[in-house]
Automatic annotation (TrEMBL), chain A:
Region ranges (Disordered): 1-81
GO cellular component terms attached to this protein's record: eukaryotic 43S preinitiation complex; eukaryotic 48S preinitiation complex; eukaryotic translation initiation factor 3 complex
Protein name per the record: Eukaryotic translation initiation factor 3 subunit L
BP-aspect Gene Ontology terms: formation of cytoplasmic translation initiation complex
UniProt superkingdom: Eukaryota
Domain named PCI: residues: 383-580
Annotated function: Component of the eukaryotic translation initiation factor 3 (eIF-3) complex, which is involved in protein synthesis of a specialized repertoire of mRNAs and, together with other initiation factors, stimulates binding of mRNA and methionyl-tRNAi to the 40S ribosome. The eIF-3 complex specifically targets and initiates translation of a subset of mRNAs involved in cell proliferation.
Organism encoding this protein: Dictyostelium firmibasis
From TrEMBL, chain B:
Annotated protein name in UniProt: Eukaryotic translation initiation factor 3 subunit K
UniProt source species: Dictyostelium firmibasis
One matching Pfam family: CSN8_PSD8_EIF3K
Signal peptide: none
Chief location: cytoplasm
GO term, biological process aspect, one: formation of cytoplasmic translation initiation complex
Location(s), subcellular: Cytoplasm
UniProt-listed SUPFAM superfamilies: ARM repeat, Winged helix' DNA-binding domain
C-alpha cells in the first residue's frame, strides 16, 4: 500500500511540473467554464475521467494490483487530467515530507493509520464539481445539491484516494468574486466543506491524529453554534438535502465514537486534561439535545399565536436535523449501555410506514439496527426479531443504489442478519421467507451451532454484529484500568451469561414438541439429567418466556412456540403448531371470500 | 450562546436541588423527583437521588428511572461512585422481578465492582433467581443479613417465585411448594396459600396453582375479534 502511495505522489508531482500550472492559470480556466454549462461539463469530465481511470489500470499498474484496488473503489489518481499544484503551507510541506520519509522507512501501517498527507494538486473535474456544489448550494434546490454532493464525493474518491482533500483555503480562490466573506450562506458553506474535509479524513484513516480530531470538533462546534444562535428561521438562508443532514449528524456521532475508542498517548492525555470539552460525552449529548430543542419538532403547535414561519420546525434544515439528532441520541445511549433510555427515546419517533426516517436509507438502517440491538439486550427477542425482520424486508426490496454509502449499508445489513440469527436461536419466531433464505445463506451453519448451544459461536456473532460499546469517561479520568472497565466486554459477558442461563432450554423445547404429555421422570431420562434439575429448567423456561413476552402480553401469539404446564409429575404440552384450528378456519374463509369478491365487481 | 441557554437553566436547577425531600409526600415527591431526573447529566442531583433511594427502601416504594439516573451519574462522574447505593438499587431491582431492571442496571456497572462485595452477593442471588434455583436462592438470602434488613425484600422475592410457579405448575405437592417458598412451617405455608385465594387452593397434599378459568384450552374458543373478521362474509 505505502509503495503505491508514494509512487502516486511523486507521479503527480512530475505531472505538475510538466504542466507548470500556477494559481492564475486555473482561475482563468475556470472562468471559461463557468458559462452555465458546468453541470454538463462536470458530467462529461466524469465520463472521461472514468475512461482514463480504466486505461490507467491497464497501462501503468500491475494487473493484480489494479484489480485489487478497483474492488476497493479507490484506484490510483488518474494522471491524464489537467491539474494545478497547490501551494502548500510551511506546515503542510513539513507534514508531507515527514509522511514520505515515514512511508519509505517503515512499511508498517502504524504511521499511516493516523495521518493523511495533504493534497498536492487540484484536478479540473474536482474543481468543476466543487463549483457545481457551491452554485447549487446557493440555489437551495434539494435535488441539485444532492446530485452535486454525491458527484463531488465520487470525484474526490477518484482523485484523492490516499490523501486528504484540498483545504477550503485552497478552493476559495476558485470561486473568485462569487464568494462573499460577509454572506451568511457563504460562511456556512465553508463550515460544511470543512465538515466534508474531516469526514473524508476519518473515512481514510483508522485513528486520526489528535490535532485533526480537535479541529473537527471545533468545526462541529461552529456549525452547531451558528445554527443554535439563530433568532429566527428566516435568518438561516440555507437548505440542504436530507441525505447531507443525516451524514452530518451521523458523522458527528461516528467521530465521537471513534474518539472514545482511542488508546490515548501520554501527551494526548495531557492535552485533553486541559481541554476536557473536546469530544466529551456530556457535550456531545448536550449538543444533540440542544438541536432537538431548537428544532421544536416535539414542542411545536402548542402556544402559537405567532405566524408558523417563526417556528424553527417549519425550516426543513432544523426540522430534519432535530429528527436525525433523536436517532443519533438513541445510538449514543445504546453505545453507553443505557437500553431503557434508548427505547424510551425511540418512543418519540413515529414508527409508521411513511415515517421520516425512511427518507434516507442509511438513517433507516441505523435506526432499526440500534432498535433491534436494544431489544436484544433487553431480552425482548420477539420484538428484536420483528424490528430486524421489518428492516431486512425493506432493504431487500430497495434497489441497490451505488453511492459512497452503499458499502457501509451493506456491512450494517450483514450485522443485522447476524443479530437476527441470534434471536432466532434464542427464541424461534416466524420471519419473512426471503429474509429467512438470506439468513440461511449467510449464517445457516452458525444457526445450527447456536441451536446446539455453542457459546463460542454466540460470542463470535455477537462480536461481529454488536456495536462497540464505550464508557462515558476515558479511563484516565475514571481511574479504572482499561481492562477492568471495558464496557464492550461487560455487555458481551452479560449477554453470554443470559445464553448460558438459557442453555438446555432449546433442547427441552425440541423434545417436548414431540409429546402431548410426558412424565418428568421420563423426560429427565431422555435428557440424561436429574429430575429435580429438570423441574428447575422447566420453571426457568417459563420464566424466560415471560421475560420475552413482557408483562402486558398474556397471549401466546408465537406460532412456532409451545406452551406447557406441570401437573405434579406430569408435563402437559399444548402444542401451538396443531392448535390453531380456529385461526386456520377463519383465514380460509377470508381467503376464499377474497378470491370470490373480484368477480362480483366485474359483473 | 451556550451561556445564554445554560444560565437560567442552572439557576432553576439550583432552586430545585435546594428543596428538602422530607418536606414532600407521596405523589408530590414523585413529581419532584421526575423533574429532577429530567436533567439527567447534572451531578448536583445525585445527593437527592441517594436520599430518595433510602426513602424507596424504607417506605417500600419504587421508581426505576430515578435509580438508573443515579447510576448514570456515577457512570459519568466516577469519583462520586457510591457502591452502597448501587447495592441498594440492585436490591430494589431484585424486588421488582421478573422485570429486567437488574439486567439494565448491570449493563452500566463496571465489571470489576460486580465481582466484589457489597455487590457480589446481589449478583449471585440474581443468577439463582434468573435460573430459577429457588432453594439455593433462599439459602443465600438467609446467610446474608443485608437482604432481611430491607423491608419487604423477602415478601417480594416470595411473590416473584409464586408467580413463576403459577405459570408453570397446575398442581404441586405441598411439601415441594413449602421448600420453594422457604416456608417450612406448615401453618405459615397454609396462611400464605390462603392469602393467594381464590387462585390457589389446597386439596389434601397438593396445591392447585392455576384458576379453573385458565385451565380451559384457548384453542377451542372464539374471541369476538376473530369472529368479527368473518361476519361481513355471512351478512352477504
Amino acid at each position: 500500500m505505502s509503495q503505491t502511495n508514494n509512487a502516486g505522489i511523486s507521479n503527480t508531482n512530475q505531472n505538475n511540473n510538466r504542466k507548470g500550472g500556477n494559481n492564475k492559470n486555473y482561475q482563468n480556466r475556470n472562468n471559461q467554464q463557468q458559462g452555465g454549462q458546468q453541470h454538463q461539463g462536470g458530467q462529461q469530465q466524469g465520463g472521461q475521467q472514468q475512461h482514463q481511470h480504466r486505461n490507467k489500470h491497464q497501462n501503468q499498474q500491475g494487473q493484480q494490483q489494479g484489480q485489487q484496488q478497483n474492488k476497493q473503489g479507490r484506484g490510483k489518481t488518474p494522471l491524464n487530467v489537467e491539474s494545478f499544484p497547490i501551494n502548500l503551507s510551511q506546515q503542510q510541506v513539513q507534514q508531507l515530507q515527514a509522511f514520505q520519509q515515514q512511508s519509505q522507512q517503515n512499511q508498517s501501517a502504524q504511521f499511516q493509520s493516523n495521518f493523511l498527507p495533504p493534497a498536492t494538486a487540484l484536478y479540473t473535474p474536482v474543481i468543476n464539481y466543487f463549483i457545481n456544489l457551491y452554485n447549487n448550494f446557493k440555489s437551495q434546490s434539494h435535488q441539485d445539491i444532492l446530485v452535486s454532493y454525491d458527484s463531488f464525493f465520487k470525484s474526490c474518491e477518484t482523485y484523492y484516494p490516499h490523501c486528504a482533500l484540498p483545504t477550503i483555503e485552497n478552493l476559495i480562490p476558485i470561486l473568485g468574486d462569487k464568494f462573499e466573506e460577509s454572506s451568511f450562506t457563504d460562511r456556512f458553506f465553508v463550515l460544511l466543506y470543512k465538515e466534508i474535509y474531516y469526514r473524508y479524513y476519518y473515512a481514510l484513516v483508522f485513528q486520526p491524529n489528535i490535532n485533526t480530531c480537535v479541529e473537527s470538533w471545533q468545526n462541529y462546534y461552529q456549525i452547531f453554534h451558528t445554527l443554535l444562535s439563530a433568532n429566527s428561521p428566516n435568518d438561516v438562508e440555507i437548505d440542504l438535502p436530507n441525505a447531507w443532514l443525516w451524514d452530518l449528524v451521523d458523522e458527528f456521532v461516528y467521530q465521537y465514537h471513534t474518539f472514545a475508542k482511542f488508546k490515548l498517548k501520554k501527551q494526548d492525555v495531557d492535552f485533553l486534561s486541559e481541554n476536557p470539552e473536546i469530544w466529551d460525552t456530556t457535550n456531545v449529548i448536550r449538543y444533540l439535545y440542544y438541536i432537538i430543542k431548537k428544532s421544536q419538532i416535539f414542542s411545536a403547535n402548542t402556544n402559537r399565536f405567532e405566524s408558523s414561519s417563526e417556528d424553527f420546525c417549519s425550516h426543513p434544515v432544523y426540522k430534519m436535523l432535530g429528527y436525525y439528532s433523536v436517532i443519533s441520541l438513541v445510538r449514543v445511549q445504546c453505545l453507553l449501555g443505557d437500553y431503557t433510555l434508548a427505547l424510551k427515546t425511540l418512543e418519540l419517533i413515529d414508527m409508521g410506514k411513511k415515517a421520516m426516517y425512511t427518507y434516507v436509507t442509511a438513517c433507516h438502517i441505523t435506526l432499526y439496527y440500534y432498535l433491534g440491538f436494544a431489544y436484544l439486550m433487553s431480552r425482548k427477542y420477539n420484538e428484536a426479531t420483528k424490528a430486524l425482520n421489518t428492516i431486512l424486508v425493506s432493504v431487500a426490496s430497495k434497489s441497490k443504489s451505488q453511492n459512497f454509502q452503499s458499502d457501509h449499508n451493506e456491512k450494517k445489513t450483514d450485522k443485522m442478519y447476524a443479530l437476527l440469527t441470534i434471536c432466532q436461536a434464542l427464541y424461534p419466531n416466524k420471519i419473512d421467507e426471503n429474509v429467512s433464505n438470506n439468513l440461511k445463506e449467510k449464517f445457516g451453519d452458525k444457526l445450527l451451532r447456536l441451536q446446539k448451544g455453542d457459546l463460542t459461536v454466540y460470542e463470535e456473532l455477537y462480536t461481529f454484529a454488536a456495536p462497540r460499546c464505550i464508557g462515558p469517561v476515558p479511563p484516565y479520568i475514571s481511574g479504572f484500568n482499561v481492562t477492568a472497565l471495558d464496557p464492550h466486554r461487560l455487555q458481551l459477558s452479560l449477554f453470554l451469561e443470559e445464553v448460558k442461563q438459557q442453555s438446555l432450554l432449546t433442547t427441552i423445547r425440541s423434545y417436548i414438541t414431540l409429546y402431548s404429555t410426558i412424565s418428568i421422570q421420563k423426560l429427565a431420562g431422555l435428557l440424561q439429567i436429574d429430575p429435580e434439575d429438570l423441574r428447575v429448567k422447566l420453571t426457568c423456561y417459563k420464566h424466560k418466556l415471560f421475560n420475552v413476552l413482557g408483562k402486558g402480553e398474556t397471549k401466546w401469539n408465537n406460532q412456532l412456540d409451545i406452551d406447557f404446564y406441570i401437573d405434579q409429575d406430569m408435563i402437559h404440552i399444548d402444542n401451538r403448531l396443531y392448535a390453531k384450528e380456529t385461526d386456520s378456519f377463519i383465514n380460509s374463509i377470508l381467503k376464499f371470500e377474497g378470491s370470490l369478491t373480484p368477480s362480483y365487481n366485474w359483473m | 450562546m451556550e451561556n445564554d441557554q445554560e444560565q437560567p437553566q442552572q439557576e432553576m436547577e439550583q432552586e430545585q436541588v435546594d428543596i428538602e425531600l422530607s418536606s414532600l409526600q407521596g405523589q408530590e415527591r414523585i413529581e419532584y423527583i421526575n423533574t429532577l431526573i429530567a436533567d439527567s447529566y447534572n451531578i448536583a442531583i445525585a445527593k437527592k437521588l441517594e436520599e430518595f433511594l433510602d426513602i424507596q427502601i424504607n417506605e417500600n416504594i419504587y421508581l426505576f428511572q430515578a435509580n438508573s439516573t443515579l447510576l448514570k451519574l456515577y457512570q459519568f462522574n466516577p469519583t462520586h461512585l457510591n457502591k452502597d447505593s448501587i447495592a441498594k438499587m440492585l436490591a430494589k431491582a431484585l424486588m421488582n422481578f421478573p422485570c429486567n431492571d437488574f439486567l439494565f442496571l448491570s449493563y452500566m456497572i463496571p465489571s470489576i465492582i460486580q465481582k466484589e462485595e457489597p455487590l457480589l452477593k446481589l449478583f449471585i442471588l440474581n443468577n439463582f433467581l434468573e435460573t430459577c434455583k429457588f432453594k439455593e436462592a433462599w439459602s443465600h438470602i438467609n446467610s446474608h443479613s443485608f437482604f432481611s434488613e430491607i423491608p419487604s425484600f423477602i415478601d417480594n422475592i416470595r411473590n416473584f417465585i409464586s408467580g413463576v410457579l403459577s405459570i408453570t405448575y397446575q398442581n404441586i405437592s405441598i411439601t415441594m411448594l413449602g421448600e420453594l417458598l422457604n416456608l417450612s412451617d406448615r401453618t405459615q405455608l397454609v396462611e400464605y396459600i390462603q392469602s393467594k385465594q381464590p387462585t390457589w387452593k389446597i386439596s389434601d397434599s397438593t396445591v392447585s396453582l392455576q384458576s379453573d378459568n385458565s385451565k380451559q384450552k384457548k384453542a377451542d374458543t372464539f374471541t369476538f375479534d376473530q369472529l368479527s373478521r368473518i361476519l361481513p362474509t355471512f351478512i352477504k
